[in-house]
User: Fold this.
Amino acid sequence: MLKFDVLRTDGHARRGRLTLNHGVVETPVFMPVGTYGTVKGVTPASLETMGAQIILGNTFHLWLRPGLDVLRQFGGLHRFEAWQRPILTDSGGFQVWSLGEMRKISEEGVKFASPVNGDKLFLTPETSMQIQHVLNSDIVMQFDECTPYETKGHITTEKEARVSMELSLRWARRCLDEFGRLENPNALFGIVQGGMFENLREESLASLVELDLPGYAIGGVSVGEPKEAMQRIVAHTPHRLPDAKPRYLMGVGTPEDLVEGVAAGVDMFDCVMPTRNARNGHLFTRFGDLKIRNAKHKTDERPLDPTCGCPTCAQFSRAYLHHLDRCNEMLGPMLASVHNLHYYVNLMREIRAALDDGTFTAYARQFASDRARGID
Amino acid sequence: MLKFDVLRTDGHARRGRLTLNHGVVETPVFMPVGTYGTVKGVTPASLETMGAQIILGNTFHLWLRPGLDVLRQFGGLHRFEAWQRPILTDSGGFQVWSLGEMRKISEEGVKFASPVNGDKLFLTPETSMQIQHVLNSDIVMQFDECTPYETKGHITTEKEARVSMELSLRWARRCLDEFGRLENPNALFGIVQGGMFENLREESLASLVELDLPGYAIGGVSVGEPKEAMQRIVAHTPHRLPDAKPRYLMGVGTPEDLVEGVAAGVDMFDCVMPTRNARNGHLFTRFGDLKIRNAKHKTDERPLDPTCGCPTCAQFSRAYLHHLDRCNEMLGPMLASVHNLHYYVNLMREIRAALDDGTFTAYARQFASDRARGID
Assistant:
């Protein structure tokens, strides 16, 4: 099931509430990424404490490991990974695309060699739906072909993007059929493709809307394109999607991207950036980003961000985090991941509060100026 | 300051209470190892929750990184690593010994090249005391020479062990002088050496007791000797130490070693085993040890140990921990470290309860039989 209520709007921006089989999600929302059934370096308890409402899992990765037998035995991903709140699973389309030369795409689906053990595998819209049915994720993504920004060394042409987009549309219909056949009680989202071409995005969107899916995503961004191209598509597509349905911008992005996405009408975001950057010592704060490896932090007794309410900032100094990083101590990425995810989750909480109060424009302005100030 | 009360005895075993500048420690106690100012992969909050009462830090490592300037600025190790309860710091003797050919020992101290940046360094009894004074650890260990089990390819002879033990004694006196000169408000422990020779152990012990130190350790075990040799020394030395003072067996050991150590009169233990083994997928349980990498755990829905009260066993299955291990996910060693440390801390809690109740012998018998049963 999926129920979506738009509680308030401000321009294209929306404050909403999404009700799913495993709970309620206040939107706009950031969804931490838990590819292999774990948000890297963070416990479920810690995610709950910081206020994460819904996390991601990945069809492709979980199919390979632990495999469907184990996940079926556990009745899905929730019990396996000890996460009681909603889960969204990506379909595997993006990961298969990431395999590059290791995969072969046909009308039927995608053939590839398992990166784990070399086994020959075949992922189709139907198998993706079957896997996600076993995962019992609250939101199931359609299997799509993620149109790359570059194809065979050149920028993807409109013709190439159209071929890819139309394949994803045919796959969307097959996904919907299989999802229905399986009597999956959760919600299937379609994915708008069309590369960097507004006309293709509109065609994709129109055809997906005809399928009357419970939610829609914008895919094929954050795939190597220049920032301006991404911003152009993010400004173009979200508000053209049906008002009454949730809109999910896949794989985006920086804190600035999230605020822009909300202004453009996006309700849901996911990105590996907070956890991946944390493991590289790149930390987000209200006043700009900070590289903890930098020698200037060696003696700094201050927390990463004095305005932050996360457990890392409550207890530890920059000097200590710098020390952990220098010594390659595991606690370093652990504390950094909690901080960065808390930053993203809290940013969305602040955005929701601003939308509730009708002060989103002022909030976005203050956000941009705070972030641009740079952290001292 | 240090105050030690023996509350109850059972044969050589003692139930005690150690009062230090940063708090009270109920003994017998296991002390998690936090070499570089962090117990690997575990937050201070998690250590507090599991009931860890005192943790270790290492003089040698912390001297190199973050260095004394940073630690002095923070007023010591407690605030730097956000741990409010007592800390014991090892003197650096064992670590300098571990450097092998990279170090040169003289009467004055040990010259070596920094394993971090190659800098030429000189560690003496006096510098070790000065560093530990900056660290402000509740228990300061004397700088000693750890007598190896093997010397230059042969088993260390009694003559070699005597030379080494006598050097450690002279260093103990220099440590005590420097500790006094610095007016360190904490407590200095002497370390009994003497290799695998009971007569040397007794000489070392007698000379250290003359110094009237507030506590004594047994060093130079767990240095490559056969298990029987270690057990022989552990059975020999502890109860010969002054009854009124705490006794610390350094770097030991398995759960079985701890129970034997308590029976032999030891009050304090430390070992890297719970955290190091956790990172290698070796897990301790009441009913024997378990290798989580083993394929038989792939579909096992049970917790590691159904009798364990740790957060890992409360939430996660063996199948999930097996999956995390197979995928090299950071959450794997995190959850395993919490479990193993909880196992050690809880083992000591159970031992203390048995001593309180006068049932230690029965407890030790049940422990041995449970552990020998093997986990299914």
Notes: The interface with chain B takes residues 36-38, 40-45, 65-66, 69-70, 73-74, 80-82, 298-299, 301, 311, 315-317, 319-320, 322-324, 326-327, 329-331, 333-335 of chain A (CB under 8 Å). Chain A has 15 helices and 18 strands.
